[in-house]
């Protein structure tokens, strides 16, 4: 399925510079899913595109947020504090339509969503490819950010993600977060051609899983 209506964009001034929101609205939205990109890519990531195409037909408007550094054409992401500032700056525009907002992102964007969820009043958090630790450095865990979100949280993680495979995620109190594993997926949810799961099936697992989770949020 595709978006109910045509996508629109808007530029939002933040203390970190202008950010950009690309809206994929539902006709009768019950939720807004706001998702930002990682430190090495933009909103053209395969999982973000798949969510924007699939969810609006089911009453979830999708807002793809480009951080100011991407809008400015820079190749390297700034410090986490600056990313948080950019996210705070777009939040009023994300809540303006009215429905509750799920704060989300992939990789570095997932960290931002977790860190700011409580102060911004996010309805929930969607963490795509949460970077639990730098590759090969499991002792540098960022689990405290994930566990500190304080709202219903869904992690969607590739089975072969070098930034943290599903089995590496900590056990947490019941209800702290749920986790969906994308078999064979890497940090960008790409699956090798030899895998039993096709790329299309992997993306379907993501969109179906996120949609089912949003229904549990009301």
TrEMBL record:
Keyword entries, A-Z: Hydrolase
Domain of life: Bacteria
InterPro entries per record: AB_hydrolase_fold (IPR029058), KANL3/Tex30_Abhydrolase (IPR046879), NSL3/Tex30 (IPR026555)
GO molecular function, one term: hydrolase activity
A Pfam family annotated for this UniProt entry: Abhydrolase_11
Domain KANL3/Tex30 alpha/beta hydrolase-like: 32-213
UniProt key word Ligase: no
Signal peptide boundaries: none
Protein name in UniProt: Hydrolase
Organism name: Streptomyces coelicoflavus
């Amino acid at each position: 399925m595709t978006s109910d209506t045509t996508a629109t964009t808007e530029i939002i001034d933040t203390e970190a510079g202008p950010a950009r929101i690309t809206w994929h609205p539902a006709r009768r939205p019950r939720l807004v899913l706001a998702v930002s990109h990682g430190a090495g890519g933009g909103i053209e990531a395969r999982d973000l595109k798949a969510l924007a195409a699939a969810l609006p037909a089911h009453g979830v408007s999708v807002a793809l947020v480009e951080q100011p550094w991407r809008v400015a054409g820079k190749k390297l992401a700034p410090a986490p504090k600056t990313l948080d500032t950019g996210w705070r700056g777009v939040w009023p525009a994300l809540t303006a339509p009215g429905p509750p907002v799920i704060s989300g992102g992939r990789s570095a964007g997932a960290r931002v969503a977790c860190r700011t969820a409580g102060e911004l009043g996010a309805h929930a958090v969607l963490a795509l490819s949460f970077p639990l630790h730098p590759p090969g450095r499991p002792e540098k865990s960022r689990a405290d950010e994930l566990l500190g979100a304080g709202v219903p949280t869904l992690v969607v993680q590739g089975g072969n993600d070098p930034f943290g495979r599903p089995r590496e995620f900590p056990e947490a109190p019941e209800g702290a977060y749920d986790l969906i594993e994308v078999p064979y997926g890497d940090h960008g949810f790409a699956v090798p051609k030899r895998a039993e799961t096709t790329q299309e099936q992997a993306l379907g697992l993501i969109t179906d899983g996120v949609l089912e989770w949003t229904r549990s949020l009301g």
